[in-house]
Fold these 4 entries.
Entry 1:
Amino acid sequence: MKFFKFLIVGFTLAIGIIVAIFGIKTEDDTPATGKSETIDAINISPETEQNEMQREPEVVAKVHIPILSERERAAMPPFIQAMPVKPFNRDSNHNWFRDDLELYIAYKFPYSPKSRAAYTQMAKILDRMGTDSGQTQTPRQVTLWKEEQLALKCFYDTGFTDDELEELKRIVFDSEHMREGYQMVIDKRQEIPANLAKSIVIPEDACDPILWENEVTLQEWKPEKTIK
């Protein structure tokens, strides 16, 4: 009887020791790989997430722009030599025009201010339509419509073709968002009252004179010589 009593006590004591040892080992080992670390790793605060969303990386231009050698670039007009070799698809010089499109047009027509102005006028309105996505009110949509008609007339009057227009659209609409945005603006025109649509009048000379003057000025521009 005593033997069984001691046996039960000893067995109970052994179980207690094993449980104690197992518990201590679990506490020591879990912090490095345990569940709590996984939760902390994915528990991003709203402020951190918002800051990450605001820090959008610069997007390299998808427009195919040839990389000129130093000799080829030196043969270009000075205003082209002053442009970035690898532009981004954003407006870094604050002239309301994407850097990649500006360089693309400059390379295409290095010695023709008139051609650059017509291409720029068309590219600018296409870019604005793509970013608008039909989200603005009716007066703004009427303005976009009129400016597009002006740009189209200037584009064709300068001697460019439908194929060149389609090529320019492919370059300007460098993302699905831009392509869809442009189509939304076109679709939005069905909601514009007829009297407002009829109020759009296109003059005989539809080319933007300010753009043309700017391009002429660029063509004649020369960098100032530094005095040593």
Entry 2:
Amino acid sequence: MGQTVVFFDCFSGASGDMLLSALLDAGFELKALHEGIGSLGLSSDLVTSERAIQHGITATTLTVHDPHDSQPARSLPAVRRLLAASGLSERVTGQSLAVFTAIAEVEGAIHGLAPDEVHFHELSAVDSLVDIVGFALALEALGIEKVYASPLPLGLGMIHIAHGMMPLPAAATLALLARAQAPTIPSSAQIELVTPTGAGLLGSLAEFRQPAMRIQKVGYGMGKKELPWANVVRVWIGEELDLPPARHTPVSSAHTHSHTSGSDHIHAHDHDHAHGHAHTHAHDHKHGHDHPHSH
């Protein structure tokens, strides 16, 4: 048998909560997520999920609630220590740290700081821990050995952050995608489609192509905004297959017409059919420095 793989179809973009929600929808148990974040000192009451219908599609949405007690501004060294003391597997801690390190390195480069000086503040630190560590926990629990993702759509326009108005994609998102050499596709949407956490997770852990696979499970992770289309990430989980890509060639047909003159004429017609579709996305985000984003 081939290895178990996951493919993220990010036609509506990608945020940390949407990616994790899709894995929950595909079979990762919320109880396992609660146990995992509990090892980080976070209460299970902070994270809830529910299933909802949006534009005819039932999907799972994840909510990280504001902790009642004050959360420390966590630096990268603090995250390292937290993961080291968690008792989580080497695989989960390694993947989580790879994502946190990538985000800290690009944020540091943008703001002129060493990676260890970058801080994840208050609720954003909790969001980041849940989304990133939860993603790694889900991959392990579902037996996923390799991660694949579609090209990522990028919106344009301006967004308000703590430093003022900035262009989209957000600087951290753009840097993370460049670091991963991730393929992107243009979108006319004047909003943020891919968040830094989404870019960090996929850029650090995924290969950007669709694999040949036998699909066994499908999940949908819903974003927080109500949009004119289903604001979801689709996830396919199954067995990877060693098959070549499909090849499509023009279809030829020959038509014989009988004419009154007594002569027969054969006309060969080659038809080349191309089919496509377009998506229009609209997201409304406001965020600040070092905060994860959801949509």
Entry 3:
Amino acid sequence: MRDRGRWLWLAAGLLLGALGAGLFLGQSRPVEAANDRFEDYVMCTGTAFANVPVRGGVASPTDGVWILDYRSGKLQATVVDRSSGKLVGWAEMDLVGEFGIPPRQNVHFLMTTGNISYGQSVLYVAETSTGKFGVYSLGPKTDGSPGVVIRRHDMVMFRKS
């Protein structure tokens, strides 16, 4: 009788364990994408400004938006002001000059965001025809005026062109 009780508890434990594992592992995680593209445009989002006080002096991250226009080779970026819900001006960078791309050359940009610290993301941009890879971030203007600037942190070759 004692052995039968042990086998019953073992079977119940195995059944509940299998059921719990099936429920936990069977749920799919939603795919979170911070990039999208349409024709000649690419858009990425990521957090920015972890150390800028907003709403009563509390430091809080906000969303940054990056848009790349293939035709003009322009990278534009802005952030969302959390208190008003509005965009804070646009910063612009000429990637054709930045990557040293000759005029009329067919360009192939890839870009995505990544996190370097809590509340601060960077933009990774690769140009496949030149083999160059750049790292950029958004920051407040250095003169104290409202708005943002795009800062380049690094530019390296990921392959020989």
Entry 4:
Amino acid sequence: MRGYGQGLLEEPSSNGQAHYDALLHRDTGTLQVFNQQDHPGNTLDVANGQAPAWLGEFPNFDASSAPKTANTDFSGISLAGAVGSAGDADLDRQLTAYLNGSSLPSGTNVGFSSMSSASGQPTVPSQFIDITASYGVVPDPALSFTLDAFPDIDGVPARWLDQDQLPNNIRNYLIDLFLPHRHRCGFEVHIGRFLASLDLPINKRPHPCLMNSIYLLGCHYSPGGSLSHLEPMFLAKARSSLAESLEHADRLKDFLFASALLACYFYFKGRLLEGQHHNSAAVRFDPPRDPIELYELINIFWLTFITDRAGSLGTGLPHAIKDTEITTVFPRPLKEFEEGTITDDSNATIMNMYEDGNHAQDASKDSLHCLRVKSLALLERSSRLSMVPEGERTSTFWREFRATDRALERIAQTLPHIHSGMGINDTSSLIFVHTFVQGSTIQLHSPFLDTIQASYDRSVKAADAAMQVVHMIDNIDAKNFHMLMGLSWICVSDILKREIRRKQNISDSDGARQSEQELEALLAVMKRLRQVYPILGLWLSKALST
């Protein structure tokens, strides 16, 4: 069975109906995409209203020729109108009105800021719902909602449980909370098309399983955890709607996206085994309707790959997808799918990274999503090789070891600078990538630090490079970091401690003190990360031990 790795733009087979498969199943260990359906006229200019016929019609899509600005996404859809970006005004009042059956004023924006009292403190309603009392979570009373008219089930308003669609203002606010963090969750879709699809007929909209997963993550990313008390409700709704989607084979692309987003949520909460459980599914799709859908389906594969590898690293369980079985091409920028500029020169996948001279080892032109995929793949492979017992290090092991080491070295040399991106999300992604690549190098060489000088030297160099990154992130909120960065930082801390001892043994007191200062700076960053991901306390304890 051939995959996109053998030819992204191949003609579909003339024998039988072409189809698109995305498959992940623990019994078979496979997840593949293949057999692209050919589409004539693959140039897409949504921003200027020149979408080809296969794009479909969106009643809320403004097909004006307005140029892209900071307030629009590249498809020309106004973000202010689409996702309530006007700020945090009136959300509490609107939620209260909604729960009491009142209508919301048309054109109002969503937010919390109108709930302040004269003293500047949020007003506390006389009655409020403890959404999560049964879960042992105490919500902030200032952000709770009055309930006079509706009964509740385990503290959750029945009106919220009995319907799939939230009021638009509430929906848009939760989406707005999620979208800035979507890259961290691997949600790589055409945002203009996604937003336009929200108001399509019910059965053409994103499936409730995807929407509830997005609402759940929106609550997770709410400022100061102000909506964390709503998470159990959206988690329950996401789980039940996932089961419905699979049972009826309904919008299975949304099912896979939702499953992976739910896995991310559990990883963020330190519930690693549950996250790994939600990352297993087997689904067959119809052919992609157009290049944009092809782009999204390829990214579904890599999102599932990322959550699979992250779960394997976090839990120690074996991963479901073998590198050698993957033929899906690495993620490519959306622009290439819109403009029809993809060629077979872009055809590379996991195993190509380990081929000397292959362009897959050049990271300079990769998309951020592609860099995240490569760095996580390298970290998992390095971790796995480092755990091979000495007696099992065969010639095959050493071939994989050398190929991985060369790939790490070449990719590290070609990575974009951390501040070469377009904002905090790009910067946080590049921090993630640089940290993983340097941590992977140390992890790969860790069994040989005491016996092979070249391995020790490579690890010291990688630790120095990782610390250069650490010193650049003092002013970045730790919520923008990935939990698994802690694993790489532990590897770096081990090298720093070794360097302290080595320098002390040769009476290099100045050098030892410098390494101690580096270690202190690293531990300070790790403590910041622990505040976001409490499960890292165990890893931090390990780093603090000598």
